[in-house]
Amino acid sequence: MINNKYPVVDKIEHSDNIFELVFSAPYIADQGLPGEFVNVKVNYNLPHPFLRRPFSLHDVSEDGKVSLLIKVVGAGTRKLQDCSLGDEFELLGPVGKPFTIPDIDCTPVLVAGGIGIAPIYFLLKRLVNEDFDPILFLGAKTSGDIIKKKELISTCNVHFATEDGSFAKEGFVSDLLLKHDFNVNEKYYFYSCGPKPMLKKIGEFAIQNNFECEVSLEENFGCGIGACYGCSILTKDGYKRICRDGPVFNIKDVFEFL
Amino acid sequence: MIDLGVNIGSVHFKNPILLASGIIGFGEEYQEIIDFENLGGIVTKSISLNPRAGNKPPRIVETPCGMLNSIGLENPGLEKFLNEKVDFLKTIKTNVVVSVAGSSIDDFVEIAKVLEPIEEFKILELNISCPNVKEGGILFGKNPDLTRSVVRRVREVSTKNLWVKLTPNVTNIGNIASIAEEAGADAIALINTFEGMAIDINTFKPKLGNVIGGLSGPAIKPMAIKRVWEVFQTVKIPIVGMGGIFSWKDVVEFLIAGAQIVQIGSSIFNDPLLPIKAITGLSDFLRSHNYSSISEIVGKTKINE
User: Fold this and answer.
1) Which residue among B19, B43, B130, B231 is the active-site one?
2) Which of the residues A18, A73, A91, A168 could staple to A14 if both were Cys, CB 3.0 to 4.6 A apart?
3) Do A201 and A258 form a contact (C-beta atoms < 8 A)?
4) What backbone phi and psi angles, to 5 degrees, belong to A158?
5) SS3 (DSSP) at B256
């Protein structure tokens, strides 16, 4: 984990409010693992927005590029959206506990809701690289919110759902998953990131079927490196810091508190 | 290079820039990105006699130019502090101020007694001003009699440099500061956070799990400066100033208002290099204005001149 300034080398608009910011950040690209995140300083010379914004690593490349998938929700993300190529931002990271890479005889099942695809995409690429054959379930509000459709279809076995039915199956991705025919003789390892009600449904399903399951959680961060205890959440072992003990947690440790 | 050194009692600080309590925990995480030895010191997260789980989340909400927090003094308690944190803290090559919290006067006394033999810790900061706990905390700092008792009782058992950290959430902070001085404090540290609250207009629910919290960040700096200036006129002992420091200029402002030492708090979250930048900035400021030490500017606010 280091704090350093990195230039924006690319900005890709995926929809009105979802974009990808690509930094040239060799250290993070080299060290970063799926599930880890960086804290981005969004204010310069002004004290507002005061806190840094945490973003999961969305992708890294061998030539030192790091990409963050960002949904515009407020003043901080808007500042990032307004940036120009060449602008430099301070990134602190990589921080956090990454997803576990499973035993090779497991079939990874990745479930992402909305902007939850951000860390799941990085995990998916890593798993495919390591010869796994993952299944991806990806849900969004509407067709335009589903990023990288073609690439995902060509990369893995993918199931889409949109809440408004504008693309693929209509409804929640969690319901799509519950209807899926999982082979009782196979070992599955679930990973999920998205809204809490979705994580609850996926978690319940995984626990009932005795599948391993990890979820990536979020909360407002203070320091973002584990020192301030501002992002603590209840787990079965008491309060844990999302930024340091997570953001990835085993569902069994957090399910009853979601 | 200008000497930025400051003495409070018998304790020497290589410069007046410290990190405030509750910001860096016990130092383990931030040591990766901040060279503590370049600072005048660090203040630990407050230690209570027994472990404290802390408050219900969410514990942090961003506000204009600042943040509300209601951590609730989550800490491992005195025993775990001694077993798991002290060895690392002893390796830090600058002053380590131990912040002490208690739900009763006896708690403060007990912790002070146990810390007394640890020579590496030369300073205790009594946190009688946390707004986020039901027992102790701010209740002490708002009450002149309790302030007097807790400082007096700790003074009886501790030979360490004793700092008392005050809350701004009182009518007359100068009065509380004088009481702490009379009771034996070596320095007054001010201010802790301002009590605050934020409500989600869509759900009508408080944004903090604890309903209320403490406001920190640049938003509170003018209010902190005012209180440092006020207390500077009422006490003779040194002042440790804090509240919203976001740049080296803020450090200079606190010194002019009357602080001999400052602590930087939540702005570290924004810029972990701020303390180092503040040391350089302060040094450059003094040099460019031909001052040879910080004592030449401490408390030199010009009124009606």
Assistant:
1) B130
2) A18
3) no
4) -120, 140
5) helix
d(CA B268, CA A247): 21
Residue to test with chain B: of A4, A218, A239, A240, most B Cβ within 10 A: A239
Is residue B305 in a domain?
no
A91 plus A130 within the same structural domain: no
For residues A59 and A124, membership in a common domain is answered with no
Tell me which residue range forms the domain holding B189. Answer: 6-54+72-198+214-296
Q: Which domain holds residue A15?
A: 2-95
- A230 occurs within a structural domain: no
Domains in chain B: how many in total? 1
Q: How far is B181 from chain A (nearest CA, A)?
A: 30
Residue A16 in domain: yes
pLDDT in tens, B194-219: 999 999 999 999 999 999 999 999 99
Say if residues B181 and B237 touch (Cβ distance below 8 Å).
Answer: yes
> CA of B26, closest CA in chain A: separation in Å?
8
Q: Could you identify the residue written with the tokens 């003043």?
A: A75
Q: Does residue B280 belong to the interface with chain A, where contact is any CB pair within 8 Å?
A: no
* Domain-located, residue A233: no
Residue B175 lies in a domain: yes
B219 contact residues in A (CB cutoff 8 A): 47
Does residue B80 lie in a domain region? yes
Interface of B with A in 109-138 (CB under 8 A): none
**What are B297's two structure tokens?**
């500017």
**Contact assignment for A47 to B273 by CB distance below 8 Å:** no
Domain boundary among A95, A128, A148: A95
Q: Of A39, A74, A95, which one is at a domain's C-terminal end?
A: A95
Burial of B144 (C-beta count, 10 Å sphere; 0-12/13-18/19+): middle
State residue B41's pLDDT score: 98
Has residue B15 got a pLDDT over 80? yes
Q: What is the CATH number of the domain that holds B148?
A: 3.20.20.70
Residue B67 has which token pair? 């943040």
Residue B79 binned pLDDT confidence (cut-offs 50, 70, 90): very high
In a domain, A176, yes or no: yes
Token code pair at residue A168? 């693929």
What does the pLDDT profile of chain A (258 residues) look like in tens digits?
Answer: 899 999 999 999 999 899 999 999 999 999 999 999 999 999 988 899 999 999 999 999 999 999 999 999 999 999 999 999 999 999 999 999 999 999 889 999 999 999 999 999 999 999 999 999 999 999 999 998 999 989 999 999 999 999 998 988 899 999 999 998 888 888 999 999 999 999 999 999 999 999 999 999 999 999 999 999 999 999 999 999 999 999 999 999 999 998
Q: Is A1 on the interface with B (CB under 8 A)?
A: yes
- Cα end-to-end span (Å), chain A: 29
* Cβ contact, residue pair A219, B58, below 8 Å: yes
Q: What angle do CA A202, A216, A85 make, to 5 degrees?
A: 130
Decide if pLDDT at B132 tops 80. Answer: no
Q: Is residue B13 part of a domain?
A: yes
Q: Testing the interface with B: which of A4, A229, A243 to mutate, by most B Cβ within 10 A?
A: A229
Active site residue B130: yes
Interface of A with B in 38-57 (CB under 8 A): 41, 43, 47-52
Rounded to two decimals, the ipTM of the complex is 0.93
Same domain, A184 and A153: yes
